[in-house]
Design goal:
single chain, mainly alpha, about 60 residues
Length: about 60
């Protein structure tokens, strides 16, 4: 979202805010890839999905 806002305000590519947003987006992408790899290899797991219970599906 922050990257989009910076693009809309036409911030220069050398603006420190743009550089920080780009670096953080790259880190987020790598972390997501690492999570997917760990899930596939069984090193991590996601919590089991739980269906809401109670009246009208309320938890």
């Amino acid at each position: 979202m922050r990257g989009q806002l910076l693009a809309e305000c036409r911030a220069a590519a050398d603006d420190p805010r743009v550089r920080l947003a780009a670096r953080q987006l790259g880190e987020l992408g790598r972390a997501h890839d690492d999570l997917i790899t760990d899930l596939r290899l069984g090193r991590r797991r996601l919590p089991p999905f739980q269906t809401p219970a109670g009246p009208a599906g309320m938890a």
